[in-house]
Amino acid sequence: MDPILLFFEYSMLGILSGGIYTLVALGFILIFKASGVFNFAMGEMMMAGTYAFYLFAVILGLHWVPSLALGIVACCGLAWLIERAVLRPMLGQPTIALVMVTFGVGFMLRGIATMAFGSEAHQLPEILPRDPFFLGSIFVPGKPARGFALAVAVCVSLILFFRYSRVGIALRATAADQITAYSMGIDVRRIFGVTWMAAAAAGTLAGVIAAAVTSLTPDLGSIALNVLAVVILGGLNSVGGVIVSGLFIGWLESVTGAYFGGMYRDITPYIAVLIMLMIRPHGLFGTKPVERI
Amino acid sequence: MRIGHFSHSYARDEAIVADRRGWTLVIVLAALVVAFPFVAPTYWLYLASLLAINVISTVGLNITTGYTGLLSLGHGAFMGVGAYTAGYLALQHGMPFYFTIPLAGVVAALTGAAFGLPSLRIRGLYLVIATLAAQFLLGFVFQNWTAVTGGLNGLKLPPAEFLGFRFDTDTRLFFLVVVPAAALTLFAANLFRTRVGRAFIAIRERDLTAEVLGVELVRYKLSSFALGAFYAGVAGGLMAYFFRIVTSEQYGLQVSVFFLAAVVVGGMGSIFGSILGALFMTILPEVLRAVVNIAAPFLPMKAALVLAPLRETVFGLLLVLFLIFSPRGIVEMWRRGRFALSVWPFRN
Predict the structure, then answer these.
(1) pLDDT tens-digit profile of B94-151?
(2) Which of A146, A234, B12, B80 has the fewest CB atoms found within 10 Å of its own CB?
(3) pLDDT at A269
(4) Interatomic CA distance for residues B232 and B109, integer angstroms
(5) What pairs with residue A135 in β-bridges?
(6) Do B253 and B73 contact (CB within 8 A), yes or no?
(7) CA–CA separation, B180 vs B235, rounded Å?
(8) A287 and B CB contact within 8 Å
(9) Please, are residues B78 and B56 in contact by the beta-carbon 8 Å criterion?
(10) Between chain A and chain B, how many beta carbons pairs sit less than 8 Å apart?
């Protein structure tokens, strides 16, 4: 086969899987921008939402559309609970405490999911058609392509929501300056809850797409660790940055996996992020914070 | 109630062991530690040795994270560097343990300083990710640099030996790990009475301010990383001789999180807190196993299946509860308890 064509095919595969990264990364960024919490439990929230979907769609045997809606609602409820019960009392604590508390929540979610559903892999119902198609002469596999389309649709609607809706504007105001937002009558605490729920919804969708392409295990959330690299690469406070870097990391992983062997695939995002931190410490699109002593 | 405890000089005020009572306590404790292996059952001895290793590593992470404020998620990998260094030198070059273990510390310290380089420009979450990247990169090296690390098979070590004396029984291993644990803990406790230790604390409080006041950030941040990694390396080297096997799974991300949890649960910025945190984290899995074994007949599924996820859940729950209700760790509870005792019965 033509090597250039092959390269394009690997690139295509990578960019398609990058769509999921972008979706999860958006969840990270949302919570971080609004409340300053870096949510290490994002992957586990994603996994929990996917198990909720699995519960409705397979165990209870509902159609996949209402199951997905119910799964998202369940995960939003969980996220609200986490925010209210765990993160709210931790307001104002140093970074290490916030990081550790989200790690703790992640461990709990993974432990509970393993106890409830077992550690074996589950198959989700066929929500994404499998049939591949050709783009010019590039072979495009069916499931990742439709998953990518879905991810793009969700990303776009989330961004539109934050640009134009009332809640979205309140959220951006909170992200810009909490005290000013509060004095303007925005209920900042409610905004925290809303961002956690929005992140949970994005996470659930990303989880369902990811698990539909492969399978569902309690370790589904571990891809969120790669997403951390995406978020840092894009810059912690830049929505546009994570979209670009999500696709970029997906592409890079696929291409290094194809040309250097699968074992290099897992560490590519971290090498990229280390190089970037040396050159531009605040991400490709992040802004350097100005500090006062 | 304790009375008549005054300090007439600064030297005495900041002394670690201030008076006769303190010295008595130290001597009694030392005697207990020496006597322990001759009276304790094997299983307890095993736990105590593991605890000593964990104390070394926790104290090291507390120097970097608790005292200097540089959050590190790569501590487990630094331990791995130490373990592999000790294993490699012992197996390929036949070096005795009293060379390999310090060298394990030195190599880990150099690695730590190298990955600490980003800390000069970045802070907070960016640093967390940089150290996370260090963790994964080193894990990758452990798995794939087969010539040194043995790849997926790992390394199998001979027992440590000193002039024909083999550290192969539990009692002997206990002394092998307790001596460096005591020495390194004492060193760390003394460190924070010196210029370097105070510089670390100044950096934690506000690094820009510290720089304005004349603390060289480059030097002290890197030495903090190196020192923390040195402790990790020594702990890893001891672990290699303790388990007599080194594999990459022993030093994954979960180990880094384990020690961060020990630091947070014990008390950040406290040496005694590190000991308490390591104690808590070492005993917790054993307590859970005992509880699950007792409850086993009443469980719907097999006890062995439920143990691992249950441990994860309880570990997460305790971490969350500790952070919410006692953010300063067990050491703060200890202080409060002591204070309550010291004013009894005159308060109220």
Answers:
(1) 888 889 999 999 999 999 999 888 777 777 778 888 899 999 999 999 998 888 888 7
(2) B12
(3) 86
(4) 8
(5) A138
(6) yes
(7) 9
(8) no
(9) no
(10) 134
Cross-chain Cβ contact B129/A263 below 8 Å: no
Tell me which chain A residues have a C-beta less than 8 angstroms from the C-beta of B122.
277, 281-282
In angstroms, the separation between the Cα of residue A231 and the nearest Cα of chain B is: 10
In the block, tokens 């649960």 appear at B265
User: A95: which chain B residues are within 8 Å (Cβ-Cβ)?
Assistant: 71, 124-125, 128
At B17 the pLDDT is: 80
Domain boundaries, chain B: 40-250
User: Do A119 and B309 count as a contact with CB atoms less than 8 A apart?
Assistant: yes
Q: What is the mean pLDDT of residues A14-25?
A: 87
pTM (predicted TM-score): 0.89
Calpha distance B264→B70 (Å, rounded):
13
Q: Residue count of chain A, please give it.
A: 293
Residue whose structure tokens are 């996220």:
A79
For residue A36, which residues of chain B lie inside 8 Å, CB to CB?
none
Provide the token pair at A46: 């994603």
Q: Which helix (H) or strand (E) holds B165?
A: strand B165-167
ipTM (interface pTM): 0.87
Contact A119 B206 (CB under 8 A): no
Q: How many CA atoms lie within 13 A of A280 on its CB side?
A: 14
The larger pLDDT score, comparing residue B157 to residue B88, is at B88
Closest residue by Cα to residue A103 from B320, B307, B249: B320
- Say yes or no to pLDDT of A219 above 70: yes
State the CB neighbour count (10 A cutoff) for residue B11: 9
